Amino acid sequence: MSARQRRESRRLPVPPDPARAVPLWARAVELRTEWLNHALCCAPADRDTAENAITALYALLDRPRPRFVWVPSPAAAVRLVPPTPPARVTDELWRVEKQLATLVSRLRDRLDHAIHDHWYRYAAHFPPPPDPVLALRSGADLRSVVTRGVHDVLRAVVRESVAGLVRAAIPEERLGLWWGGQHDVDWVAHYDVHRRVLDARFDAADAEQWQLWAALVRSCGWWWPRGDVCVVVERPLAIRTEPVAGSAYGEVRLHNPTGPAVVFPDGWSVHAWHGTRVPAWVVESPTVELIAAERNVEVRRCAIERVGWAAFIDQAGLTLVGRADDPGNPGCELRLYDLPYARWGAPTRLLLAVNGSVERDGTRRRYGLLVPPWFDDPVDAAGWSYGLTGVQYAQLRRRT
Question: What are the DUF6745 domain coordinates in residue numbering (predicted)?
């Protein structure tokens, strides 16, 4: 072991024994819930707190307090905010946002060093254990479980699901460089849990700057700094979610079976069906005609699920051509239907199958595939969808 490695090993805190790790994990779960509640908060923004925190961040860049413009939704914000220009442009209008990006990047590098992120980052590449308590009692490292069970879960739930679906509803070129406010919760909570549960010690100035970002998570929605003007978004009026069945980490996803899943004060909204962003008609007024015209397979699947497969088959006037056990998915059935060409365009058939992979909620979704009209055997049609013959497909042990 080199001298540097010996110094690093002395600096690393001793992992707690399993008996102590379980109650520490319980405390981490409490903090994760606390921060998730901030991320999903629909109360009016605390404008004073948000403006003071952003002003303090500007001060760290030796810049005066900006003029604040509050808007009711991200869609309203991008109509006001110029998108970020190419990197070679150094106009004063975009200098603040680049300086802020550097500021927070360096802060996180220093905080990572303080919590010895390099020590367990490798473990974070693996999925979290299905039962964290059992894993800890079996001797799993507490810090890696906390990282995967707090940071990674909040990132998946908030940044990738909630914020990701909202972001996907806005043209990417209009977004520019922005910060998430309440949706920056994953990394803010990550350091908070290490500080309050795992006894991490941060430099006083770094802790003070972290508090500014934490204040923004607690107080407002997305925000765009542009020179001496900062555009800040109000929090949503409503966020509708459902628990992910079978999750040991309290995961939720956007879902509302009767209306929009996210609604902002100006009425701008995002619809979601079990975590998938969909057009409003999928939830509010699905019809066979709209489903037939939809080119996106995932959107079409969600719309059919909204109607119900039995009702859809009846309403669409589908004729059963054949059915067979699915050799690549034991215990499930393949069904082949003839489509009414007047509604669905070119001659084609629909193969109804069950997904070979288990969803995050523990279920297996049914899905439909359009296949050429010359297939009469569902097994041949299933093989075609994999680039195989029916005989080859029948030899599969398990498809995914």
Answer: 200-397
Provide the CA 251 distance to its chain's centre, in angstroms: 10
CA dihedral 140, 146, 147, 148 (to 10 degrees): 70
Query: Could you tell me if residue 16 is inside a domain?
Result: yes
Query: CA–CA distance from 205 to each of 5, 115, 186, 208 (Å)?
Result: 27, 16, 21, 5
- Its domain, for residue 351, covers 286-394
Could you tell me the pTM of the whole model?
Answer: 0.81
Residue 233, strand partner residues? 71
Q: What is the mean pLDDT of residues 224-238?
A: 95
- Starting at the edge strand that comes first in sequence, how are the strands of the sheet with 238-239 ordered? 238-239, 262-263, 269-273, 276-278
Give the residue-averaged pLDDT of 101-113: 94
Query: In terms of Cα–Cα distance, which of 75, 76, 81, 83 is closest to 173?
Result: 83
Closest CA to 236 of 78, 83, 80, 71: 71
CA 83/CA 86 separation, integer angstroms = 10
Report the C-alpha gap between 275 and 368 in whole angstroms: 19
Average pLDDT over residues 177-191: 95
H or E segment and range at residue 290: helix 288-293
Q: Is 277 inside a domain boundary?
A: no
Q: Which two tokens stand for residue 259?
A: 């209306």
CA 169, 44, 219: angle at the middle one, nearest 5? 85
H/E element, 353? strand 349-354
Q: How many domains does the chain divide into?
A: 2
Taken as a whole, the chain contains a residue count of 400
Share of the chain above pLDDT 70, in %: 85
Sign of the alpha-carbon dihedral angle for 171, 174, 175, 177? positive
Q: How would you class 87 by CB atoms within 10 Å of its CB: exposed for 0-12, middle for 13-18, buried for 19 or more?
A: exposed
Please state, in angstroms and as integers, the Cα–Cα distance from residue 168 to each residue in 80, 171, 244, following that order. Answer: 18, 7, 21
Strand partners, 67: 229
318 and 216 in a common domain: no
Identify whether residues 335 and 220 lie together within a single domain. Answer: no
Token pair listed for 190: 């990550």
Average pLDDT in the 56-76 region?
96
- Confirm whether 278 is domain-assigned: no
